[in-house]
């Protein structure tokens, strides 16, 4: 079962998906004319190894140096618009963040050790009550084909709060948010320290990104200080980190799945507010290597319908806009569908992949006010009504999977 709580999946049965490859609502408001920047100037054509298909364009993310980001007096509106605005890719990256390279390496190197723990130990780390959104998860999610996803394992935890609440009612009502962390304290004690350190850093930098997002949005719409993205994230207890480990696959598996543009991670749009991402780490026989296939990586579908490969540096933190932020910013900040393509070919055989994502999102009690022109999941939301983030999340889980019994 996929973790829809953090990633809202595409409706693969819709006619629009079948005709346009991804589901983008026909009710989407038209994009305004492009601002004073040229998207195509950052697009380069990259040859895709092991592929006879027409190469898709590769686009470097918009980058902001950390020293500029932490300056609250800096005007970053053009870069925020370029990365997150209606004509952007919904992603940008932050460079030169102190301590990030070492904290990234410390955590990602532990993913293979976690995946190699005895099955009975990993079973103790599972949490079915939260729909596997705390602790270890493997084979609980589904691929786009409907088959169980055995390609990767995940470990979920809140890097900021071990026990968000002791309220029994809330734990039962919102188990994916209100549950407690489950750490392998005896089997892999290093994991908790490394997970929390990297998660806290990505969160702190993400708050700086949110501050500049608020400055940009406030130029076009009225909002109180406590309604801004920064304050919503600051007071939330719902943030969730996900350490992912993609198991080494044999050549036959790569050839079978490699033609899919989303063979490692199905097409989806992030459900929360802001997602912090690390660049993936690849290894063969525990030795770090570069990605064995230049066609592998993160692919994004733009508002104009173009599919591009997005790249960012190993020592950069990338941030993606989620659906909740698009709704609350009334479209000034835009989320985009994306998927991850696995490497294929002989060089990809026996290669594993590790990465980390921090899903920054509102508190379960945070009121979300939906305007009349909201188009994301419109069928679930009464016009000009409000829901809490927890209620909204449960609606999505019930829609795409099954209702809690």
From TrEMBL:
The keyword Ligase does not apply. GO terms for molecular function: metal ion binding; oxidoreductase activity. Keywords: Iron, Metal-binding, Oxidoreductase. PROSITE patterns: FE2OG_OXY. Gene3D superfamilies: B-lactam Antibiotic, Isopenicillin N Synthase, Chain (2.60.120.330). InterPro entries: IPNS-like_sf, Oxoglu/Fe-dep_dioxygenase_dom. It comes from the Eukaryota. Residues 245-362 form the Fe2OG dioxygenase domain. Belongs to the iron/ascorbate-dependent oxidoreductase family. This is Fe2OG dioxygenase domain-containing protein. It comes from Gossypium raimondii (Peruvian cotton).
